[in-house]
Amino acid sequence: MRIVMLPYLAHGHVLPFYELAKKLSNKGFHIYFCSTPICLEPIRKNHVDVDVHHHHIQLVDLQLPSSFHQQLPPHYHSTKNLPPHLKNTLLAAFDATKPLFSDILKNLRPELVIYDLFQPWAPEAAHEQNIEAVLFLTSVQAQRMNFDVPKETESNKKNLDYLFKNSVNGMTFTHRFFKSITSSSHMILIKSSTEIQAKYHNSNLSSDVFGDIVPVGPLVQRPQDHDGDEKIMDWLSKKEASSVVFVSFGSENFLSEEEMEEMANGLELSNVDFIWVVRFHGENNVKSIHEALPLGFLERIQGKGLIVDWAPQAKILAHKSSGGFVSHCGWSSTLEAMMYGVPIIAIPMQLDQPYNAKLAEEMGVGIVVPRKEKKFTRHEVAKVIKTVMVEEQGKEVRRRAKELSESLNKKEDEEFDVAVEKLLHLVQESKNSVAASKET
């Protein structure tokens, strides 16, 4: 059975789609994984198993129309490091690939298309060729769509305004979302588990209206070896069990100068060993990490902390020395922490992240760092880190994190098998319907 998969042009969407592709390929499905070359580059570079272990996955380049290339050179065919003023241009260019995508479907003739939430033209292209199309949501919070997200940061307010008010080709992001839902064939796949979904039994994404909501499991990346990670892992291996806090805010979230200073001082005040992934936006003119961090900070943390610009997140979280995760609470990062049993020190920044942070807290596996006037302080950062990592007060969070990890890992394969059976049933029903129509 052939499946074409088309994620949104964002790192946080491409990787969950690829994890789903790997699991489907292991079940014998042939996957055509379709995206722009810049989005596929990390997969080609880091996932050598594409050709070795997952020979049923074929990467398919989707070239954005050349008419957009002057405004949108190839390295901007992804949301990563995309200047804000080009967001609409990228989405318009993606919309314009529908004819090319239709041609890809004609050539590949798949039985199923799995698509993302902001491209309703993808299921349209599939249905025009009598191909079933199913929506895959990479974020559990996308179900709720009531957007009563705490306005914890100015950047979050701007992003929500963007979803509601910004229109590209006559559609706001909200309109795109609902059109994508209603175009899905009888079911919606979601990157989640039944245990997590139980928290959302009152979700306003009703199965009566939108079809079956099918968890495919957390789809967490498994630890892999990468060039350059030896130094990090050697450093981590010398630390005691559960003694190190890992700090990372994802690939598309960046701390301001003030936040960087508070985070650095908070880590120092906590007196806990740490690995901190420090990133700057592509357009940021910061010359060096020395200039971005407080004076003398790097010298003072010698042996206590490790500053890097990249880290093998899954590998670190799975390591016995990791005892906490300071995270922005992107959905994939939240699930990785849950799967590996690492308590979360939550500092959400935008979009669904405040929801995810609240979920982690409600499930007893994390604590949200309080903000004062929308800002977090070094003292609150240090306080929550110490609570989660070492103090008696955090013992229940540590216990619950391990307990949830065991439960999620135990159910993972079972949940995925259920999802596969439903996909197979959908395609078979479609074939039966086409055959009956031909007989008539």
TrEMBL record:
Pfam families: Glyco_transf_N, UDPGT
PROSITE patterns, sorted: UDPGT
Database matches in InterPro entries: Glyco_transf_N, UDP_glucos_trans, UDP_glycos_trans_CS
Taxonomy, superkingdom: Eukaryota
Coiled-coil region: none
EC number(s) reported in the record: 2.4.1.-
Keyword Transferase included in the entry's annotation: yes
Domain Glycosyltransferase N-terminal residue range list: 3-183
Keywords: Glycosyltransferase, Transferase
GO BP annotation list: carbohydrate derivative biosynthetic process
GO molecular-function terms, A-Z: UDP-glycosyltransferase activity
Listed Gene3D superfamilies: Glycogen Phosphorylase B (3.40.50.2000)
Similarity comment: Belongs to the UDP-glycosyltransferase family.
PANTHER family membership: GLYCOSYLTRANSFERASE, UDP-GLYCOSYLTRANSFERASE SUPERFAMILY PROTEIN
The protein, known as: Glycosyltransferase
The organism's taxonomic lineage, starting at the top: Eukaryota, Viridiplantae, Streptophyta, Embryophyta, Tracheophyta
